[in-house]
Design goal:
Blueprint: H1 6-34, E1 55-57, E2 63-65, E3 76-81, H2 86-102, E4 107-113, H3 119-129, E5 135-138, H4 142-146, E6 154-158, E7 164-169, H5 175-184
Parallel strand pairs: 3-4, 4-5
Antiparallel strand pairs: 1-2, 3-6, 6-7
């Protein structure tokens, strides 16, 4: 039997691991494309759960905590986002409408996941498309784990008291309607 170098095994193992990661992300994206808001199954945290903080970075690489962006008595919408996510792109007009309609009466945050994108790519996307709300970098997956977000295009809306009022995933979400329910309630 021919001996293999440890570097060759490592490269093959790494390539196999990346292939498995790509397959898992594809499966999650298929799920995200077919599932919608609550009612078809729980996505993310259970309604009524207090929205947790998470150690992230701003786009300049400075450490921030997600909870620092929560404002007392103001509903918060958090989207788990990626520049390559077609569902995220489809949701963008609703996020823009929510921000335009409610202004400072709501907080909108995009949490850029660190899967198949770099901080540089996120910054370039924000520069090219503009942003009326903060984008935060989840380099270590802290927010993904804290919010149990299985994929991109997961949206969590926290009510005025900071409790989960809505969760959904995929392009078919009615975020404008969900936010109207939270703001009006």
């Amino acid at each position: 039997m021919k001996a293999r170098s440890s570097a060759g095994v490592t490269r093959r193992g790494r390539a196999r691991g990346l292939g498995l990661l790509a397959a898992a992300m594809t499966a999650l994206l298929v799920f995200a494309g077919t599932a919608s808001a609550q009612g078809e199954g729980q996505v993310s945290l259970t309604s009524g759960t207090v929205g947790p903080g998470a150690a992230l970075e701003d786009l300049d690489g400075n450490p921030v905590d997600l909870s620092a962006f929560f404002v007392a008595d103001v509903p918060t919408l958090i989207e788990f986002w990626a520049s390559w996510c077609e569902n995220c792109e489809a949701l963008q007009p609703q996020l823009d409408e929510i921000k335009a309609t409610y202004g400072e009466r709501v907080t909108v945050i995009a949490v850029a996941v660190a899967v198949s994108q770099s901080l540089r790519r996120v910054k370039r996307h924000v520069e090219e498309h503009g942003a009326s709300y903060p984008y935060l970098w989840d380099a270590r997956g802290n927010a993904v784990r804290a919010y149990e977000a299985p994929t991109t295009s997961v949206v969590v809306i926290l009510d005025r008291a900071g409790h989960v009022a809505y969760t959904g995933v995929g392009a078919g979400q009615d975020l404008v309607g969900a936010m109207a329910d939270v703001v009006g309630g």
